Amino acid sequence: MTTSTEHVDVLIIGAGLSGIGAAHHIQSAFPHRTYTILEARDAIGGTWDLFRYPGVRSDSDMHTLGYRFRPWTQAKAIADGPSILDYVRETAAEAGIDRQIRFGHRAVRAQWSTVDARWTVDVVHGDEPVRLTTSFLYLCTGYYRYDAGYVPEFPGIERFTGTVVHPQFWPEDLDHTGKKVVVIGSGATAVTLVPALADRATHVTMLQRSPTYIASRPGEDAIANRLRRTIGARRAYPVTRWKNVLLGTAFYRLARSRPRVMKSLIRKGAIRQLPPGYDVDTHFNPRYQPWDQRLCLAPDGDLFTAIRRGGASVVTDRIAEFTPTGVCLESGAELDADIVVTATGLRLLAFGGMDLVVDGREVTLRDTMAYKSMMLSGVPNFVFTIGYTNASWTLKADLVGEYTVRLLRYLDARGYDQCVPADDDPTVNRQPLLDFQAGYVLRSVDEFPRSGSRTPWRLGMSYAHDVLNLRYGRIDDGVLRFSRRPAVAPPMPRAA
């Protein structure tokens, strides 16, 4: 039985990095509009509150991962997880956004009514069902499944007498001091964990099926720090932000247009930092091209330093089976372990698993197309945030917030109640929304909306292009359709 119902102008789902940013944009532009944030968990921060494994950090610089409206002022550009979490929470507290969050509220179903021009959202709060209505639904749920990570089936893992842990659920009391640790995986999480664990473990082995591109980058941005001291944080921040955007864009374009050149540069960087004679081509020479998957970052070359000092090593092989004391490989080699970390990837979940219904019709996500990578065809008054895969997430999140403000102002100025992208061009070919070859994407991409072969349905991966399109482009572009709520006829007089 539903115990409460209320209406807000804008309902934001998710109180992570994107959700707090979205609330800031809405609150700043429309101080008299009502909004609420629903957060399924019990804390602000999303990913940065969930992941608590040793060494957890950003894999991009904080001058682009930080909000456009709030400068990052710490010396470290590649920041640790607790610092990022503090930044998000301080942003929410300073603006009073934290007072608009309802924790432990998981949105499970949203139903749109064209007649009423509003969403009805069903929410689970403990054992109590709650219902809210809203004129505009703004999803900031990311695309990770928070309650489960991905772990392949490993033969004999039940025989292992040590500790097995997934990074997504790191136990607070797990002590790896003096232990032999095997980290299974070669993605960003494994590359972060290995040097962090090597400080106290007897030895850490990164066990990978195939190599990943790993590039070193200074943990501090010397130019940013110098500019901040010279002209102040407020003026230095946009300069540093654009510097890093342009450098990152140039790096990405070089990788896509001249992959051999980029492979050579990354390989030479690894050779410089690894011990003489190290088998780079076995352990650090991927089969795929740069940026077919996201490039892994080693701040100040920490992974290479751990290998050079002997605290860590890399083994490229496949698991045959687990033994009571470790892992037996297909090559016949065995790795002894006290702790095995399954850094084997994440699971994706579109829109937090929430069901969408439009005028009584269930929305099948894979049948929809993503308009400007932030709205869905046939779904009115609905916006979602998915960041870039080749740059910082928040760059796109901020632009989605800015565009949403522009869109709401456009509706207000012209007296419209509804807007919806119309997918009525048969010449547009459908493509995956996440054009990315990472395993966690390939496992779940069919559960997500599609993108299209041309603008405005094409997946955008250029921040500069999106600045022009989302910040300054036309709202009424012929694809986005606007309407007013249907007039309700007065009741007929009753016959005598």
TrEMBL record:
UniProt GO MF annotations: flavin adenine dinucleotide binding; N,N-dimethylaniline monooxygenase activity; NADP binding
Family according to the record: Belongs to the FAD-binding monooxygenase family.
InterPro entries: FAD-binding_MO, FAD/NAD-bd_sf, Flavin_mOase-like
Organism: Rugosimonospora africana
Superkingdom field: Bacteria
Statement: the UniProt record of this protein carries the keyword NADP: yes
Protein's recorded name: Flavin-binding monooxygenase
Keyword Flavoprotein annotated: yes
Cofactor(s) named in the record: FAD
Gene3D superfamilies: FAD/NAD(P)-binding domain
One family name in Pfam for this protein: FMO-like
Annotated signal peptide: none
This protein's UniProt keywords: FAD, Flavoprotein, Monooxygenase, NADP, Oxidoreductase
